[in-house]
Amino acid sequence: MTRTTRTARTALCAAAVAGLFLGLTACQEAKDAAKSVASEGTDKAIDQVDKAVKDTYEVTYEVSGSGINQIGYHAGKGTALEPLLTKDTKPKLPWTKTVTLKGIMPPAVVPTTMELNASPDLKCKVLHKGKVLAEATGDKVLTGGCIAAAPVGK
C-alpha cells in the first residue's frame, strides 16, 4: 500500500466520520426544534385551559309546566369539575333563575316530581346570552333534565 493510498483512505474515512457527525447533529437539532414547538403548543393549550377554568359565565335556567316538587341546578358552588347541586323546594312555576358558573362547570337544571308521569307541558331550558344550550320536554325533563356543555371558548 502506498503512501498516497493511505492518505486517500484516511481522508475518505475522515470525510465519512465528519458527514456522519454533521448528519447526527442536524437530526438532533431538528429533534430539539420539534420538541420546542411541541412544548410551545402544549404551553398554549395549558394556558387556554387555565383561562377557561378561571373564567365565569352566566346562564339562565327556565322550568315551566306543572307537578314539580323540586328543582336542582348548578349555581356556581363547588369546583368546575365537581359542582354542587343547589335545590329549590316547591318552586312556583314558571321558574327562572340566572346564575354565574365557573369555567368548564356544566350548566344543569334537573326538575323532579313525585308523579309517575310528567305533565306533557313540562319544559326545561338552559340559555346563555339568549341562545338555547339545552332543552327538554315531558318525560325527558324527568329522566335527565337539561344539561349542557360549558360555553367557554365559544
Short description:
InterPro entries: MmpS_C. By secondary structure, this protein is an alpha+beta fold.
Structure characterization notes:
This protein is an alpha+beta fold and 154 residues long. The model is unreliable at 11-27 (pLDDT under 50). It has two helices and eight strands, in the order αβββββββαβ. The protein is elongated and about 105 Å long. The chain starts with a helix and ends in a 7-residue tail after the last strand. A hairpin with a 4-residue loop joins strand 2 and strand 3 (83-89). It is 38% helix and 34% strand.
Features:
154 residues, MmpS_C, elongated, 2 helices, alpha+beta, signal, 4-stranded antiparallel sheet, 2 domains, Immunoglobulin-like, MmpS family membrane protein, 34% strand
Distance between the termini: 77 Å
Contiguous low-pLDDT stretches (5 residues minimum) are: 11-27
Report the C-alpha radius of gyration, rounded. 31 Å
SSE sequence, one letter per element: HEEEEEEEHE
- Strand adjacency order, main sheet: 4-1-6-7
How large is the count of helical segments? 2
Going by CATH, the architecture of the largest domain would be Sandwich
Which percent range fits the helix content? Answer: 25-40%
Strand content: 25-35%
Assembly state (oligomeric): single chain
From the helix content, strand content and strand pairing, which structural class follows?
alpha+beta
CATH class type of the largest domain: Mainly Beta
Would you count the extended β strands for me? 8
